[in-house]
Specification:
8% strand, globular, Glutaredoxin
Length: 79
């Protein structure tokens, strides 16, 4: 994951939306690593170290913004 791309996604969608706290990677992290994620910088650092903690799919729709995760209703108007 290029840091520049992650920074763009974080700015566009927000780190809270990008960080998958329900996935197995997050659950396998120790409590201290989870507690250290408190802002965009710490979330980006974790996502760069463990790319599988990024919620997927992340789709850049160009001028129509970025979506994180799959939502059929939200995608219907974009495809």
């Amino acid at each position: 994951m290029p840091p520049e791309q992650l920074a763009l996604w974080t700015q566009a969608a927000g780190w809270e939306k990008l960080l998958n706290r329900k996935g197995t990677t997050w659950r396998k992290l120790d409590a201290a690593a989870q507690a250290a994620v408190v802002d965009a910088a710490s979330a980006q650092s974790l996502m760069l170290a463990h790319a599988s903690v990024i919620k997927r799919p992340v789709v850049d729709w160009g001028n129509n913004g970025i979506t994180v995760g799959f939502d059929a209703a939200a995608w219907a108007g974009r495809i």
